[in-house]
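Comment thread on ticket #2218

A.B. wrote:
> Attaching the input chain for the structure job we discussed in standup.
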Amino acid sequence: MKGIIRLLSVVMTISVLLAGCAREETTDSEKALAGWVYANEPVSSAELSIYNTKGEQILEGESIVANELGAIVLATGKLPSDFQITAQKGKLNGKAFDAVLRADVRGFDAESDTIYINFATTLVSTYIDKNPEVTLDEATLSIKTFLELPEWFDLASGTQLSGEHFNNAQFLTEANQNGGVNSFMDKLLAEMEAGKTHPFKEELLTSIGSTIAMELGKGAASYVGGELMGWGLSKAGIDLSNDHTAEDLAEIKKGMQEMQSKLSEMSIQLGAISTQLKNIQNQLKDMLRQITHQQALSEYAGRVAQINSLISSVDTIQRDLNHFVANPPANPEKTRQSLINRIENSIVDNADTIHNYLVGLAGEKSLITLWREIVYEDRFIDSYDYARVKAQYDFFKQYQETILLLRVEYYHALEEKPGDNEKIIMDCIEHFNSQMEQQEKLLSLPIEKYTVVDTKWNIMFYSENIEFAKADSSFSATDKTREEVFNYMEELAKANYAGYSDWEALDDDYFGALYTEFKPEILNKTWPEYLISSGWPGKTVPITIVPFKNYHDTPYFPKASFMFFGSRSKRFTAYPAEGYNLKSDEVHYILMAARWISKDHLTAAKMFGYEHLKK
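C.D. wrote:
> Ran it. Output below, let me know if you need it in another format.
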């Protein structure tokens, strides 16, 4: 662990000492860091070409470059608004990478937009090739549906390091098992045309930003007190004269390589999470029905606007740092003081700003709470809702981690000898950890995939088929007997899913919460439409069957089922001993377990953060 922490210390120190107003030092002032080529790891040294919407090549060769970090460096002023960019003949992990990756771009703004070329963007471009009549937005939405991604998810930046929704490593593994990336794309589109879906959602390791922050917290003494830290601070990247040993120079080179890799990933992460939250906010504007929630979203936007200047400063310093890595100036010492001054003026004195807004000061509602109350609008809340809540927290946490790293490096840069500012740095780290604890206490409990919380009755429902029109369960009730179906429900309840040990197979008490207020003749809705209109996930289906244990209803069927047809007819009946003889593609079975969150309404609401719905 100590070796890792020390390596990180060298990496981050070198980055600050070398970084600065790199744009001032760039040999070709027209060129800038424009984007990234990424396929689970950066794709290095790729040959890039740009085409207009007619398929005519407009940029190639020396005018457009992808370096060893996968960074796209080019004269962005020469780009049209709409284009396609391709990357080929690159290297992945030092080995030849034969895939051709692409991205279609529309409405490009050279001042603010970043170009991302990855597996997901390539799949979109391939889909457009096969369906030239569709727009980029239409193709993107179709691919999101196929990959089982939420609408707010951004295929360009969002897929880079997000394991919750799209795992690049899993994609690459399956591609290698199916003839390579581009052949695999064709197979995926064939699946898509057949009406199937294909998610890539295996969990990834913790993000790089969080990893570094944890190292700072766990190993602070080693990080700030080691001799190697002072050595890297005073020598690395500044004075490479012959007073260094060969071992010293090798260590500096190794540190630079590691630093470049880490900075690339951190830049991608910041871009991904920023775009993700922006997409969620835009989607919520269209989704929110209640006036109070719309007003709260407006208030939220106004308060976030007050910290945009700080976020912009972090973005700018981060971008300049990466630009320097891609195009280092001849004399890095010249820019050292400039960067120190920028961190001091823009970041050091404002280090608590984001935290203060998140937890709320002077009687203001915390931004964490305000955002959650905006998102949790409906009676039923699910994992998609929680993902929106968590996205805000992750967004601000990422920026706070970046600010912490910049502060640590700033105080190291001011040291006359190693360890002079150790106490200050330790205080920064401890203060950061304390703030994170305060913020985490404001987060509600997570709502896991396959579960729905009924905020009216304080019940949590669990089923692998809980989302209408989407059956994830490997157990198909179509060809199963009654005993097999109800035995499976009992096993479902014993699984301790999401860490809860009090699940019960669905019975009439639990199911009553989903049914008693359903009046099809008055609502003019099917039962799925009734639930979906109140926040239940999914799309309407023609036939729904819900098995449940029946203890009270008359007539008495110990093992009953609720069957609902698209004609708005409904019926309760005994579950047939031999099962239902219906085509599986016509029926959506929901085999459920359920649990009471708490019999006390206020306790349950506080646990999952929906107190505002109880007022």
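A.B. wrote:
> Thanks. Noting for the ticket: Confidence is low (pLDDT under 50) at residues 1-29, 204-242.
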